[in-house]
Design brief:
Helix content is about 75%, strand content about 0%. The protein has about 140 residues and is an all-alpha fold. It has one domain. Helix 1 packs antiparallel against helix 2, helix 1 runs parallel beside helix 4 and helix 2 packs antiparallel against helix 4. The longest helix is centred in the first third of the chain and has 32 residues.
Length: about 140
């Protein structure tokens, strides 16, 4: 679900960028950005699963294979505060990495701007303000 929300925001962000910069091939950029996000996300999800499995597979044997109705991830290494942080990292890192990849392509290829934090994340504030204002407009119409 987190990935779907990120994908929608990325598509809206790229659409807004293409319109404001008056770049041709709007469909190509929006779909290409979403595809890039999915590809990077899938790569990171696969690597995260491999890392998580390597943490627990060192135990080996029947104890590792016998789930007994429990989630293997929540046993052993992933308990406590450190386990919560590890779980959050492995859950959010694929989406964050996909977002950074799309932001880099947007900055360097679409807009041909200098690479810095301000340019990399430009347009996000306007995107979220537009979303916020759309709720206000809907509320005023009722």
């Amino acid at each position: 679900m987190i990935g779907a929300v990120f994908t929608i925001f990325i598509a809206m962000w790229l659409y807004q960028t293409v319109k404001q910069a008056k770049i041709e091939n709007m469909f190509f950029w929006v779909v290409g950005g979403a595809a890039l996000f999915f590809a990077v996300q899938a790569l990171f999800v696969y690597s995260d699963v491999s890392i998580l499995e390597s943490f627990r597979s060192s135990e080996g044997g029947a104890a590792y294979e016998a789930v007994n109705g429990a989630d293997r991830k929540n046993e052993g290494d992933f308990q406590g505060f450190g386990g919560i942080l590890e779980s959050l990292f492995f859950e959010l890192m694929p989406q964050f990495a996909g977002f950074i990849a799309v932001a880099l392509v947007r900055n360097r290829v679409m807009l041909k701007e200098e690479l810095n934090a301000k340019n990399l994340f430009s347009g996000l504030k306007e995107l979220f303000q537009g979303i916020k204002n759309s709720f206000k407009a809907t509320a005023n119409q009722e």
